Each structure stands twice: as structure tokens, then as C-alpha cells.
């Protein structure tokens, strides 16, 4: 009899423990996440992730095809300027470009004093994991070395689509020649209040081989030379989900058969080193959205705002205190 | 001798409505800057909108205060105690102003328009000024901590009056 009471008493504890051991990764805070990203020695004044990058400016030439799906004024036919940024993943502002596993493209549209849109995109089309706490474990495993990351992938079957992409991905020889993906889904909302879940990608208009590239700043130098000669153009391609697609799961791509709409061209006309350009001061938080675009409940997307704010707060304070040091290339 | 006067009904309503609002705002703020959960965005949006409500309320409250008689502090308080009590109250008002203003200016200089209950959006700068953002971001954080401390002191003082001094101070606000 006594034993049974004891067992009853222990049930909730066992339950909690079992849950911790099975699906759920332990919860981490925005501060813990950014601590992990920034590593042992922070680089004062720089982003704690995607620290190395370059500012670009240009305009989005909209063809008007998304007007029926979204109220965002950006989609009306016409051109609107942006401040963007190419970057490579990692916390080191002087890291070798070609070693980075992920390349990125961010955009900021300041449409009016009440409408802003920030976008941050990466080369993979999907995330390896579904929530920020498991993502934290993935980064820990990456930092711990190849055995740990193999074990992590083996324990997490949801990483399979990401791994398939990684196996076939061939890095190009230019920021201008990559495909950049929203990864997370968003809703387009039209004036009737109808919502359509979408993902998008920037599709390049050039192919560039990586064969002759070398040097720590290979991609930065390449894009600087390229834009001096010609505009860099991407098609902005939206993919529309249907009822079978889960817009809250960033580990799964939607089938190729889904409707796609090209909203126009993103045209880059100038490049500036990041510390001299406007892009350095911007927090490309993907949850800064204009009227006509809304966030899904995707747990990865929803985690981004607090983490970006924490990184932004740290580097902004360092900038204010005059701690930002331009790192030299050793 | 303590006097028996009460605060006017409108003043009591302002007081308790704002007490609930400010404590919720502090709790929401402290939680949302740490959380990576899906509700973070929702709380953040609500925080900014109710922050605007708080700003409007504190102005209305001060205007209302101007038209009403304030119950005098108990006579058995020393002049120093009276001074501290009044200084603490004006400091509270100051922080109730400074919180929404620093919150708004932080968003303004980060070029982030804030949505207010879907009615309208607070305008923001077109271009970011990261250093000015940093100034107001740090201010918002430090002033919030000062406000938490002052609210705690305020509650402790009210309870002290009620249970230890057994005067009419807390009752005058009920
Ligand atoms: C839970 C998931 C994620 C976390 C915690 C996270 C965290 C961060 C942080 C802290 C920064 C630095 C922000 C700053 O100081 O301005 C950053 C930058 C960035 N992130 Fe993420 N990230 C996440 C997911 C993603 C995803 C899914 C993408 C791509 C679709 C992405 C793309 C980028 C890009 C492109 C930048 C650099 C933006 C720029 O040029 O300023 N991130 N991320
Ligand atoms: C009575 C009014 C307000 C109170 C008591 C309040 C309180 C707080 C607190 C306690 C925090 C957390 C600070 C920290 O941990 O460093 C916070 C953060 C924040 N507040 Fe307020 N707030 C108020 C009004 C506003 C207003 C009007 C806005 C904007 C329109 C605003 C925007 C923010 C933002 C954006 C953050 C998060 C910053 C970040 O993630 O870096 N607040 N607030």
C-alpha cells in the first residue's frame, strides 16, 4: 500500500523526466542562445551571428503580380529602394569567406515612417530542426566536433531534408550566384483579409564557378568587382502553400508542383564595406513586417526576434561606448 | 492624528488601473526579452500597444490630479518622512513618463514602426541610428529596474502605514 502511494507521488516527476529525455530539448533563453553564438570571445560592435558581411544598395522592381495577395505597398507596380547585406554565417568578422557553410542575403525596405520590412535569408531551403531549443543543441554539437554532429543528426530524423540539400549543394563563386531562401513561411494578407502562406527565394541570374576563387575575402572582393561593372539581379520568387503544407514546420520543403509567382527583380547597384554602409546599424529582424505580411507560428521564426534583439542590443551598446574596433586581417 | 479623507473616486480608479497595467508591463517586458517561445512576438506587440495606453493614462492622471484635493499625509510623520513620501511619488510619476518615452524612442531610432491594436502605427525614423537606439534601449532597461525597486518600496510603505503605523494612508486609496 505504501509503495503504491510512493509510486503515485513519483509519477509526475517521472513524467517530467521522461518528457525531458524524449522529444523536448531543454528550454534556453535568448541570452543563452546569443552567448552560444558569440562564443568565448565576442567581437565588440559586430553581429553575434553573420558577423562578416558587406552592404549593398539597389531597388526592387515590382511587376504588380502579388497585389491581389498582399496589401504591402511594395508589391504595387514600380521600383522601391532597399539597403541590403550579403554575409557569411559565423561570429567572426574576419573569417575566411570560403570556409563558411552558409551564405546569406538580408534586405531592408523603409517604405514610409510607418511601414518597414526586414528580411534575412540563407542558402539552405530548410532548417535542420523545428524549434530553437533543438537548434541550440545542434549548434552545440557542431561546436563539439564531427562525431557529436553525426550523433545529433542520427538522433533527429527531421534533419533529413536539410542533409539531402547539404549533400548536393555546390557553393558557387559569387554572392551573386546563390539562391537565398526565406526558409520560414509567412502569410501574405490582402485587403479582404485573406491569408496565403508563402515562402520565397531569390533566384540568381548568373552562374559563377568557384574554381578560381582564393583568399580570406574572396567573396567580398568578387562582389565588389562585379557590382562595379554590372548590376546584380535576382528574381524574387514566391511559393504558395496549399492545404497539405505545414507552414509552421521549417524542416520540410513544399512540393515543386506548388504555384510560384515571380514578384519582380531585386537589382543591386552599389556595394559598400559594412562599417561604412547603412546596413551595419540595421537589425534585420524578420519579424519587422509591413501591413500585408504576417508571421506564421513557426517556432524557429518566432524565436528570431528576441535573439536578434539581444545581439543587436549588445553590439549597439558597444558602438555607443566606442568599443567597436575595426579588426585587421592577420 | 491621521486624517480621514479619501482620494477621489477618479483618482483611486486611475491609481489601481495603472498599478495593474504597470506591473503587467514590467512583467511582460522582463519575460519577453528572454523568451524564445512562439508567444514572444505576441507579447512584444501587446507590450508596445499597452505602453502607449500607459503614456496616455499618466497624462490624463496628472491632469485629473490637478483638479482634485489630495488627502494630507498623517500629522505624526516627521517633515523628513513627508518629504521622502512626496519625492517618491514624484519620482514614480517621472518614471511612468520615462518608461513609455524611452520605449518609443528606442523603437523610433531602430526604425521599427510599432503597431497599436491594429488601429494605427507609431511612426519611426526611416534610417536607423544605432547609437541613439543603444542609449534609449539601455535607459529603458535601467529605468525599468529603478521602477521595479520604487514600486516595491511604494508597496512596502503602504503596508507599513497600514499594519505598523495603523494610520489611514492605505485606506485613503481603497
Ligand atoms: C532560432 C533560429 C535563429 C536564431 C536564434 C538566429 C539568430 C541570429 C542572430 C542573433 C543574428 C544577429 C542579429 C544582429 O545582431 O543584427 C542573426 C543574423 C542573421 N540570421 Fe539568424 N537566427 C536564426 C534563424 C535564421 C534563419 C532561419 C535564417 C534564414 C532564413 C537566418 C538568417 C540570418 C541572416 C541572413 C542574418 C544576418 C542578417 C544581417 O545581414 O544582418 N537566421 N541570426
Ligand atoms: C509603462 C510603460 C512601459 C514599461 C513599464 C515597460 C517595461 C519594460 C521592461 C521591464 C522591459 C525589459 C527591459 C530589460 O530587461 O532590459 C521592456 C522592454 C521593451 N520595451 Fe517596454 N515598457 C514600457 C513601455 C514601452 C513602450 C511604449 C514601448 C514601445 C513603443 C516599449 C518597447 C519595448 C521594447 C521593444 C522592449 C524590448 C527591447 C529588446 O528586446 O531589446 N516599451 N519594457
- What portion of the residues of chain B fall into strands of 2 or more residues? under 5%
Helical content of chain B stands at: 55-70%
Percent of residues in beta strands of chain A = 15-25%
Structural class of chain B: mainly alpha
CATH level 3 topology of chain B: Fumarate Reductase Cytochrome B subunit
- Could you state the oligomeric state of the chains shown? heterodimer
Which strands sit side by side, in order, in the main sheet of chain B? 1-2
By secondary-structure content and strand pairing, the structural class of chain A works out as: alpha+beta
- What is the CATH architecture term of chain B? Up-down Bundle
Please, what is the average pLDDT of chain A? 93
N-to-C span of chain A: 72 Å
Rg value of chain B: 18 Å
Parts with pLDDT < 50 across at least 5 consecutive residues of chain B: none
Folded structure, characterized:
Chain A has seven helices and ten strands. In chain A, 29% of the residues lie in helices and 25% in strands. Chain A has 330 residues and is an alpha+beta fold. Chain B is mainly alpha-helical. Chain B has one domain: Up-down Bundle (Fumarate Reductase Cytochrome B subunit). A two-stranded antiparallel ribbon of chain B has the order 1-2. The interface between A and B is large, with 40 and 32 residues. One protoporphyrin IX containing FE binds next to α1, α2, α3 and α4 of chain B.
Task: Label this structure with key terms.
heterodimer, A: 330 residues, alpha+beta, Catalase HpII,  Chain A, domain 1, ten-stranded antiparallel sheet, 10 strands, 29% helix, B: 174 residues, mainly alpha, Fumarate Reductase Cytochrome B subunit, two-stranded antiparallel sheet, 4 helices, 2 strands, elongated, binds protoporphyrin IX containing FE
Amino acid at each position: 500500500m505504501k509503495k503504491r502511494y510512493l509510486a503515485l507521488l513519483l509519477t509526475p516527476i517521472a513524467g517530467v523526466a521522461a518528457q525531458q529525455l524524449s522529444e523536448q530539448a531543454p528550454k534556453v533563453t535568448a541570452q543563452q542562445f546569443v552567448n552560444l553564438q558569440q562564443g568565448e570571445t565576442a567581437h565588440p560592435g559586430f553581429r553575434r551571428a553573420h558577423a562578416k558581411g558587406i552592404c549593398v544598395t539597389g531597388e526592387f522592381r515590382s511587376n504588380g503580380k502579388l497585389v491581389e495577395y498582399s496589401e504591402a505597398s511594395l508589391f504595387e507596380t514600380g521600383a522601391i529602394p532597399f539597403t541590403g547585406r550579403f554575409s557569411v554565417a559565423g561570429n567572426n568578422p574576419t573569417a575566411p569567406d570560403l570556409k563558411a557553410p552558409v551564405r546569406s542575403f538580408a534586405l531592408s525596405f523603409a517604405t514610409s515612417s510607418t511601414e518597414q520590412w526586414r528580411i534575412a535569408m540563407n542558402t539552405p531551403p530548410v532548417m535542420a530542426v523545428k524549434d530553437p531549443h533543438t537548434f541550440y543543441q545542434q549548434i552545440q554539437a557542431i561546436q563539439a566536433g564531427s562525431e557529436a554532429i553525426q550523433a545529433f543528426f542520427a538522433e533527429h530524423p527531421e534533419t533529413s531534408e536539410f542533409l539531402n540539400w547539404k549533400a548536393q549543394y555546390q557553393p558557387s563563386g559569387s554572392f551573386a550566384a546563390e539562391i537565398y531562401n526565406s526558409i520560414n513561411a509567412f502569410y501574405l494578407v490582402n485587403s479582404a483579409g485573406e491569408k496565403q502562406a508563402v515562402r520565397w527565394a531569390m533566384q540568381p541570374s548568373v552562374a559563377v564557378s568557384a574554381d578560381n576563387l582564393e583568399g580570406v575575402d574572396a567573396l567580398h572582393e568578387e562582389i565588389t568587382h562585379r557590382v562595379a561593372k554590372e548590376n546584380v539581379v535576382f528574381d524574387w520568387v514566391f511559393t504558395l502553400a496549399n492545404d497539405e503544407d505545414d507552414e509552421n514546420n521549417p524542416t520540410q520543403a513544399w512540393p515543386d508542383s506548388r504555384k510560384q509567382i515571380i514578384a519582380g527583380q531585386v537589382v543591386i547597384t552599389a556595394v559598400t564595406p559594412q562599417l561604412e554602409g547603412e546596413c551595419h546599424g540595421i537589425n534585420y529582424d524578420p519579424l519587422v513586417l509591413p501591413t500585408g505580411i504576417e508571421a506564421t507560428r513557426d517556432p524557429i521564426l518566432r524565436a528570431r526576434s528576441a535573439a536578434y534583439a539581444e545581439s543587436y542590443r549588445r553590439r549597439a551598446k558597444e558602438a555607443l561606448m566606442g568599443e567597436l574596433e575595426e579588426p585587421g586581417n592577420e | 492624528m491621521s486624517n480621514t479623507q479619501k482620494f477621489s473616486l477618479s483618482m483611486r480608479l486611475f491609481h489601481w488601473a495603472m498599478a495593474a497595467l504597470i506591473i503587467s508591463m514590467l512583467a511582460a517586458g522582463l519575460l519577453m526579452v528572454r523568451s524564445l517561445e512562439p508567444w514572444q512576438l505576441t507579447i512584444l506587440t501587446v507590450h508596445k500597444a499597452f505602453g502607449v495606453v500607459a503614456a496616455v493614462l499618466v497624462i490624463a492622471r496628472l491632469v485629473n490630479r490637478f483638479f482634485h484635493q489630495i488627502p494630507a499625509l498623517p500629522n505624526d510623520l516627521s517633515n523628513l518622512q513627508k518629504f521622502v513620501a512626496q519625492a517618491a511619488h514624484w519620482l514614480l510619476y517621472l518614471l511612468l513618463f520615462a518608461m513609455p518615452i524611452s520605449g518609443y524612442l528606442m523603437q523610433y531610432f531602430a526604425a521599427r514602426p510599432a503597431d497599436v491594436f491594429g488601429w494605427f502605427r507609431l511612426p519611426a525614423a526611416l534610417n536607423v541610428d544605432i547609437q541613439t537606439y543603444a542609449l534609449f534601449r539601455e535607459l529603458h532597461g535601467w529605468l525599468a529596474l529603478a521602477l521595479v525597486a520604487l514600486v516595491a518600496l511604494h508597496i512596502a510603505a503602504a503596508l507599513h502605514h497600514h499594519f505598523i503605523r495603523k494610520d489611514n494612508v492605505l485606506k485613503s486609496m481603497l
